[in-house]
Amino acid sequence: FVDSTGMLKLAVGVLEAWGADSSMVLAACGVLRASTLADDSRARTSKGLEHAKAAVELRVLPLLLALLQSPLTSTPSFLAELLGTLSRLTVTDAICAQLAGLNALKLAISKLGDHVTDAAVAKQACFFLANISGNDKCKESIVNAGGHIAIVQAMLLHPNHAGMQTDAVAALGNMALRLPTNCTAIAEA
Q1: N or C: which terminal CB in the chain sees fewer CB atoms within 10 Å?
Q2: 10-to-3, 18, 89, 116 alpha-carbon distances in Å
Q3: Which residues in 104-121 are b (16+ Cβ under 10 Å) and which e?
C-alpha cells in the first residue's frame, strides 16, 4: 500500500514544504512511523524495514534533524514525536552511522538533558539512543558524550514510568554490549 501510493514521498514533501507548521510536521511524522510498523508476521522481512530504508533514501534524516533544532522543539510533545520518528528509522547499521555523521547523537543527548523532567521526551530519547546503540561506534560516542549519565538521570526522575525505564535499560544494555570501557562508565554513573 505504501509503495503503490507514494506515501513516503508525500510525507517527505510535507516536511520540506511545511516544516514551520507543527501540525503538518506531526502528521508527516505519523505517516513515517506508521509505514515502518511490522505489517506481516508471516513474511521473513517486514515491509516496514524496507519503508524505513526508503524514507532514508528520500533524505528524510537531514529534514528531521533540522526540525529537531528548530524552535518548534520547545514544545515537549513535538520534540517527543520527532525523537520517536527518528527512532523508527534506525533500522540498519548504515543508517545509524549516517545519523552519527549528521550529529544526531549529541543532539539527542542534548535534548534529553534539556527536557529530562518530561517523561515523554525522556522515553523517546532513550528509545532513540537504544536503537542507535546497535552500532558500536555510536554506543562509544554516546558514552563519550555523557549520554549514559543523562539516561541514568532520566531513570531517577521517572521511577514509575515503566515505558521510559524499559527504553532506558535497553539503551544502557546496548551501550554495554561488547565494550568493557562502556560497562565501567555505565556502572560508575
Answers
A1: N
A2: 11, 12, 17, 33
A3: bbebbbbbbebbbebbbb
Q: Which residue has the cell 522543539?
A: 73
Angle, alpha carbons 86-146-155 (nearest 5°):
75
For residue range 125-169, list pLDDT tens digits in order: 999 999 999 999 999 999 999 999 999 999 999 999 999 999 999
pTM for the model stands at: 0.91
CATH code for the domain defined by 2-188: 1.25.10.10
pLDDT digits (tens, 9 = 90+) for 92-113: 999 999 999 999 999 999 999 9
User: Where in the chain are the domains?
Assistant: 2-188
